[in-house]
Design goal:
Layout (H helix, E strand, L loop, with lengths): L4 E5 L7 H6 L13 H5 L2 H4 L16 H18 L6 E2 L1 H16 L16 H7 L7 E11 L6 H13 L2 H7 L6 E8 L7 E11 L1
Parallel strand pairs: 2-4
Antiparallel strand pairs: 1-3, 3-5, 4-5
């Protein structure tokens, strides 16, 4: 089952961003893919990296590598459509990742987080993590890979982006000429279901 949702919004929100980031398991792990990869690679060179082509183990995965795979898969799509590449925004990445983690941890799938007031809406979250713009957009996705996993990080990133591409409103966000910055965050559920492991993903965009 693959179920993407979309929302366009303006900005509101407040709260303690650091608190929510520290709740995300492995967020603070040292990883080349947390920041440096975005400065040193484009989508073509990223997809040639050995690590990006390793099989994802949902019980022991590099969270930041997975986030980068979704980001660079989106820029691959943009180039294919002769569009300017997204710039990487760590603030949008953090907002997206916290939302994906909250959806997994609190067992919901929605743009609205009824369990946490500071994270209630997309505009709350994005402003909380320090992004201020005229308007922005958010995509979320709920998909799975078969277990035991034979799926690489690159393949999973492309699977998630393909879900959004085949939903007209999500495709519109990814190909929106007014959006120039992007952050992506994905998080696996902790247990298999019917021989598969599910992952929830979020993209946050701003102009």
């Amino acid at each position: 089952m693959k179920t993407p949702l979309l929302l366009l919004f303006l900005f509101l929100g407040s709260g303690n961003a650091e608190k929510f980031l520290n709740e995300v398991p492995s967020y603070n792990n040292d990883s080349f893919f947390k920041e440096k990869v975005y400065a040193e690679h484009d989508w073509k060179s990223f997809m040639q990296l050995k690590e990006a082509n390793e099989i994802v183990n949902p019980d022991n995965y590099d969270l930041h590598l997975l986030n980068a795979a979704v980001f660079f898969s989106t820029n691959k799509l943009r180039e294919k459509k002769n569009m300017k590449q997204f710039s990487y925004s760590p603030k949008l990445r953090d907002a997206a990742l916290v939302h994906s983690y909250q959806m997994v941890d609190k067992k919901f799938f929605d743009h609205f987080n009824k369990r946490s007031i500071p994270l209630r809406t997309p505009d709350n979250r994005i402003q909380l993590f320090g992004t201020f713009a005229n308007a922005a957009g958010e995509n979320i996705d709920y998909t799975h890979i078969a277990m035991p996993s034979q799926t690489t990080y690159v393949q999973l990133g492309e699977l998630i982006v393909d879900d959004w591409f085949h939903s007209a409103p999500h495709k519109k966000n990814m190909l929106n000429k007014n959006f120039g910055a992007l952050g992506c965050g994905s998080f696996f559920e902790t247990k298999n279901k019917n021989g598969a492991r599910y992952v929830k993903a979020t993209q946050d965009f701003s102009n």
